[in-house]
Amino acid sequence: MNDLATSVANEFFVRLGSETRKGLLEKYRHMSFVREEYVFYHKFETLTRAKSLRTFLATSAGEVESWRSFFLSNKILVNLISELPLLRVLSLSYSQISEIPDSIGTLRHLRYLNLSRTGITHLPEKVCSLYNLHTLILFGCSELTELPNNFLKLKNLRHLDVRETRKLNEMPLGISELKSLQTLSKIIIGGKSGVEITKLKDFENLCGKVSIIGLEKVHSAIDARAANFSQKRLSEFEVVWSDLWDGSRNEVLEKDVLNELKPRNDKLIQLKIRSYGGLEFPTWVGDPLFLHLKHVSISGCRKCTSLPPLAQLPSLNCFL
């Protein structure tokens, strides 16, 4: 089957290496290369002729190697990206790069950009020129501190993955205006450019994995109800309050807020509750109507006097 697939795709797909046929570079549409510890520009020099490339992927040699990062020559980013104007898919995941050149803005056809597990601290404003971008993956970019000011220009963005970005403490102003978003893995409430929880109702298509951080900044359970999480098709849901315990915490309010954040019960598989300040949990936490809920994690809830009735969950197999 692999030989058949390779034969059929041979004219349009190639893995950069010894089998690359220079005479056919103009015809290739999709290219991958196996990550090595150090990647230098000379390996890609011939690609300046591959003007028709739609896909450029960094891949691993196998499962064992999939987590390892690699050092990518800066010259590749500065010069090569501008030589591939028709790219639709670009993945540089696990590369040891600290910045993205402004030339990224020339890739007007780009729909998928994967920069996961890189060392970038920010994205250039030119990224906001990628009007056709559907997917932006920044998962595990531990040094990322901010997103571009003009992020709202990405009107067609459907998937934004910012999990495990511990230094990213604010969301772009007005991000709730991106009506097409289906994936927004981390939502930061409040702050200078934070999201008002009432604005979450605008994410009508939101689904999959969601983490809401900064719930101590929500001052009304009515506002939490307006977010309308009961209609969102979430598979993994995490709610996080501050781990600072001072006189500003209100046990009754936090319980009311958590009660209003009840998600749909027909999709949820994983639930995490962190630093919740209520004395007890709302009745939906442990409700047997959550038929598919398998994993529950409760941590840092220092004021709680009892656990929810998790034994009632029919599919539960992990509690932390």
Could you characterize what this model shows?
By secondary structure, this protein is mostly beta strands. The model has no long low-confidence stretch (mean pLDDT 83). The protein has helices at residues 2-9, 74-80, 221-226, 251-260; strands at 13-15, 30-34, 38-39, 55-59, 71-72, 89-91, 112-114, 135-137, 159-161, 183-184, 186-188, 207-213, 233-240, 270-274, 295-299, 318-319. The protein has an eight-stranded parallel beta sheet, with no helix packed on it. A six-stranded parallel beta sheet has the order 11-12-13-14-15-16, with no helix packed on it. It has four helices and 16 strands. It is elongated.
Briefly say what this structure is.
The chain is mainly beta. Helices cover 10% and strands 19% of the residues.
Structural class: mainly beta
| Residues in helix, % | under 10%
Q: Indicate the low-confidence ranges by residue numbers.
A: none
Task: Tell me the Rg in angstroms.
Answer: 23 Å
Name the descriptors.
single chain, 320 residues, mainly beta, 8-stranded parallel β-sheet, 6-stranded parallel β-sheet, 4 helices, 10% helix, elongated
Produce the secondary structure layout.
Layout: H1 2-9, E1 13-15, E2 30-34, E3 38-39, E4 55-59, E5 71-72, H2 74-80, E6 89-91, E7 112-114, E8 135-137, E9 159-161, E10 183-184, E11 186-188, E12 207-213, H3 221-226, E13 233-240, H4 251-260, E14 270-274, E15 295-299, E16 318-319
Parallel strand pairs: 1-2, 2-4, 3-5, 4-6, 6-7, 7-8, 8-9, 9-10, 11-12, 12-13, 13-14, 14-15, 15-16
